[in-house]
Amino acid sequence: MNLLQTVQDLIKFRTETGNLSEIDKCMAYCQKLFENSGAIVDVCRYEGVSPVLFVRNQPTEDFDVVVLGHLDVVPAADDMFKPVIKNGKMYGRGTLDMKSFAAVAFNSMFHVLENKLNLKFGIILSTDEEKGSASTHAFMNAHPNINAKIVLDNDVGGDILKIVSKCKNPVFVKIIAEGLEAHGSTPWEGIDANEKLMMTCANIRKLYPYFSKELPEPENKWQDTVHFASIKGGDVSNIISNHAEALCDFRLTENSSVADLRKNLDKCMEKGVSYKIVSESTPVVMDEKNPYILDYKAFAENILGQKIAFEHIGGATDSRSFAVKGSIVIMHSGTGEGMHASGEYVVIDSVEKIADIQIKFLDKLAGK
Fold first, then answer.
1. What's the pLDDT at 281?
2. In CATH, what number is assigned to the domain containing residue 306?
3. Are residues 161 and 305 in the same domain?
C-alpha cells in the first residue's frame, strides 16, 4: 500500500459529517483497498446513524490491538478537498484530523496480513465523530463483548513529540430559564428569563473561572472548565422574554465526577431556572509507567531520535469506549496545525514516522 497516496485519496472524499453519499463512496474505496488482502471488511450500518468501518485480520471481537478513529471531517471550502503538498507538509481537510492516521491504520493492517503476525488486529473508524460519535455508540452497543488489550488512538494532539496520557470528561449541560412575558416598557409586570439565565451563568462562573487568550495563561491547566457554547432568549426587542436557555460545555478532570458537577449546578440555579445533562462520558487516564506504553514510547524515541513527553489534554476521545473496559489506550498523533481551520496541514514526515512506530510496536507485540 502506498501510504501517502492513500492519504490523498481519502482527503478527496468530501466526508463532512452527515454527507452520507460521499461517506458511502469513501466506504466503497476502503473496501476495494482491502480486496483480496485477506482482511475481513464490514461496513456496519445502524438505524439513524452513519456507518462504521470495521476491518480485522481474524473473525474475532477479542483483540490484541485495535486502532480507533474516524473518517468524517468538519465542513470546508471545495479547494480543501484537493490535497496540496508543499515544503514537507500536506494541506487539506482531514490531513491532521484524521485521515492521514486512518491511512496509517490501513498500512498497519497490510503489514499484519503480509507478515502473518500472530496478533488479533482490528480497525474501527466511525463517520460522525465530529458531531458526537453516535455511530461509535451504536457500534459498541451492537458489539457488547468487543474488547482490546491495547487501543492505538491517533486522534489526539498534533505533536509527534507528545504522548497524551490524560483526556478530560466532556459533559454538556442545558440551562433552561422560564419567565413571564410582558411589554418591554413595563418590566415590573413580567419576569425576564434572560436575566434569570444571566444570573445563573454568573453563579456558575464563580465556581468555574473564565479563561481567555486575552488573559494570563493559568499555571494549572488541569482543572475543570466550562464555556457557554450557545445562549439564546427572546424574539423581539419590546417583549420581556419568557424563555431562555444556554448550552454549557464542561470539561472535567478525573478528580471530578458528574455527581460533583450536579451538586455545584444545584447551588447555582436561580428561581425558575433548571438544568439537564445532555450528554456525559468518562475521562481517559492512563498510567504513564504502564510497560506497554513505555515500550511504545521507547520505539517512538528511537525512531524519532528525540525524547517524547507525556501531556494532558482537555479534548475528548472515542477511545473512552474501550478505556472503560480496561483497555490500555496509547494516544499519539503526528505533527500539524489548523485542525478544523482553513489552513489545516500535517507534516508528512510525522505521518511516515507514526506508521513506522506503529509497525515496530506491532512486531514487538507479536514476538517478531
1. 85
2. 3.40.630.10
3. yes
Q: How many domains does the chain have?
A: 2
Q: Are residues 47 and 156 in the same domain?
A: yes
Mean pLDDT of the chain: 96
Using alpha carbons, select from 64, 160, 147, 142 the residue that is nearest to residue 104. Answer: 160
| pLDDT of 316 strictly over 80 | no
| Tens of pLDDT, residues 156-215 | 878 999 999 999 999 999 999 999 999 999 999 999 999 999 999 999 999 999 999 999
* SS3 state at 310: strand
Q: Phi and psi for 13 in degrees, rounded to 5?
A: -80, 125
Q: Please, which residues have CB within 8 angstroms of residue 319's CB and are 6 or more apart in sequence?
A: 68, 151, 153, 155, 284, 327, 329, 331
Rounded CA-CA distance 230/41 in Å is 40
- Provide the phi-psi class of 81: left if phi over 0, else alpha when psi is between -120 and 50, else beta: alpha
Last residue of a domain, one of 279, 314, 334: 279
Global pTM reads 0.88
**Residues 251, 317 within the same domain:** no
| pLDDT, position 317 | 83
Domain of 267 in residue numbering reads as: 169-279
Whether the Cβ atoms of residue 179 and residue 191 lie closer than 8 Å to each other: yes
pLDDT bracket for residue 249 (50, 70, 90): very high
CATH code of 256's domain: 3.30.70.360
